[in-house]
Each structure stands twice: as structure tokens, then as C-alpha cells.
Amino acid sequence: MSDSEEDLHFPEEIQPVRRQRGLRWLAILWGFLLFLVFCPTLLLTYWFPSELVRPELEAQLSELLEGVVRIRSLSFNLLTGLELTDVEFTRQQEPLVKLGGLTLDYSLWELLQQRLRVKEVRIEGVTVSLNLPGIQVVPAPPRVFLCSGRYLYRKVLSSSMTGLVS
Hints:
With 166 residues, the chain is α+β, with helices and mostly antiparallel strands. The chain has helices spanning 3-8, 14-46, 50-65, 108-112, 159-162, and strands at residues 68-77, 81-91, 94-106, 118-128, 144-147, 150-153. The longest helix has 33 residues, at 14-46.
């Protein structure tokens, strides 16, 4: 063998050092990628400008629903979604709907693809107020229970309805 061929072969002690150096760079690269993902997530979670977004959201919802929408607080988390608390919708000075909480959970993957897909909507503490002038109160229809394959009625059916029951 010539001297140039001996120079091309590395001693066995150097190969583990190269492997360690490669693993170290791979770990640094993964750490940097995780840092790039989690920093915006933390920033959006803890320093989300909800007081700037909330009035704009109220204005757009009010225009869309043709009424007045008020939201007490808004919080956002990139991973879990958008949460609105104490939402009130009024029309013509009368409150129609009050929500204790409204949470929208979306698909993060589709959001990264510039599409919004809501996976789940959670509503808590709903109060609906209806003021319907000129509507007469109609008694509730008889309750029907299924027992051993036969229908049992709570109230006695009128003769006009007996022809409908078989």
C-alpha cells in the first residue's frame, strides 16, 4: 500500500467521535425546530392581544347577526382553540341569547393549510329569551311511552285522534 491509501483509512477511534458529533448536530437541529414551534405557541397563548381582537369580533358578529353582540373576555390557544366567555346577543334592546362560555376547537393542521375547520363547539350556560307577541299558548301533546312494544298514552285521546292510532 502506498502512503496515500493509508491516509484515506481512518483509525477506529475517530469513527465514534464522528458519530457522536453527528448525533449532537441532529439533537441541536431538533431542539431548534421544537423551539420554533413552541415559542409562537407560548407567545400566542400568553400574550394574545385579546383586547384588540375582541372589539373587532364583536363588530363583525353584530353586523352578521343584525344585532348587538357583547363578549366579556376572549382567550386563544394555538393548540386548543378559541374561548369566549359571557357572550350576549341583543336585538332591539332585548337580550335574546346569553352564553356563559363558547369554545371553538379547530383542526390545527388544516389551519396551517389556510383552511378553517371547526372540530368541536362547546356551549355552556345558555339562556334564551323569547318575546313572541300574539302567540297563543297551546297545551303540550299527550306523552307517548313505549312499553313491551305497545304505545301507552298519558292522556285520553280524543275521538278524532283514535283513527290515527293502530
